């Protein structure tokens, strides 16, 4: 199967693409150094996005590849099937709208000064294949990959503006059935995210309002995964606490 090269669209081109997808453009806050890297293997072994900057604190795997454990299927209306495939990947089947899982109470994972790493790919469908809801101290937000028509990335919400309206929003062209390494770093001062080795979000959030976009997606709090009218596949999800040296000095 021929795959189009993944392209990050930045600068003056974003307004045109957001218009095509029916969006309002926000400021772009991205770095495009480094090359895209993927891991197309089927094992749930550690990958490069998970390893980067991981010295000092151990990663904790989230799923065993067989059962949800303490996680639950989120009660979205019109949801698709949730299952694990033969390779141990979590499959969020295409639903009418949202399909997802969440961890009630958030377990014993940290709520600030931590990283989440995972691999995700889009199967069938044309909207977001990975909506990662995460805690930010006592509130929550969602990292969206491929939303609002298939290409929007960003965090919902900051100061009540969702990913299509705040400075984390941008356009990223995702290929179907291609694994993407994803890493999210959450500190009091910043929200940061990477796709493969590209930093896609670097947003200062201290003293700003961090919240969920209103609607059914709020059922994913405090820690959850979902897709929208799209089959999303997730594997190698891990969480770790940051070391003191990794936390911005303004917090220390």
Automatic annotation (TrEMBL):
Region Disordered, annotated ranges: 31-57
UniProt cross-references to InterPro entries, sorted A to Z: AL/BT2_dom (IPR010496)
GO molecular function: hydrolase activity
Pfam families (alphabetical): 3keto-disac_hyd
Domain 3-keto-alpha-glucoside-1,2-lyase/3-keto-2-hydroxy-glucal hydratase per the UniProt entry, residue ranges: 59-235
Parts of the chain that traverse the membrane: none
Name of the protein in its database record: 3-keto-alpha-glucoside-1,2-lyase/3-keto-2-hydroxy-glucal hydratase domain-containing protein
Organism encoding this protein: marine metagenome
Upper classification of the organism: unclassified sequences, metagenomes, ecological metagenomes
């Amino acid at each position: 199967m021929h795959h189009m090269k993944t392209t990050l669209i930045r600068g003056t081109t974003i307004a045109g693409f957001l218009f095509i997808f029916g969006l309002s453009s926000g400021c772009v806050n991205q770095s495009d150094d480094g090359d895209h890297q993927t891991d197309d293997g089927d094992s749930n072994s550690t990958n490069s996005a998970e390893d980067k900057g991981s010295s000092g604190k151990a990663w904790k795997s989230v799923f065993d590849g067989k059962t949800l454990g303490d996680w639950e299927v989120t009660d979205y209306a019109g949801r698709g099937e949730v299952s694990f495939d033969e390779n141990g990947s979590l499959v969020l089947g295409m639903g009418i709208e949202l399909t997802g899982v969440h961890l009630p109470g958030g377990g014993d994972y940290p709520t600030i000064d931590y990283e989440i790493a995972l691999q995700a790919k889009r199967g069938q469908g044309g909207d977001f294949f990975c909506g990662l809801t995460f805690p930010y101290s006592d509130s929550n937000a969602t990292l969206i990959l491929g939303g609002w028509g298939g290409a929007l990335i960003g965090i919902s919400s900051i100061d009540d503006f969702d990913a299509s309206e705040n400075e984390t929003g941008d356009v990223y062209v995702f290929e179907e059935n291609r694994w993407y390494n994803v890493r999210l770093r959450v500190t009091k001062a910043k929200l940061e995210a990477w796709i493969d080795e590209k930093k896609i979000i670097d947003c200062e959030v201290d003293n700003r309002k961090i919240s969920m976009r209103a609607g059914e997606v709020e059922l994913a709090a405090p820690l959850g995964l979902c897709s929208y009218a799209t089959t999303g596949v997730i594997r190698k999800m891990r969480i770790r606490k940051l070391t003191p040296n990794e936390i911005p000095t303004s917090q220390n």
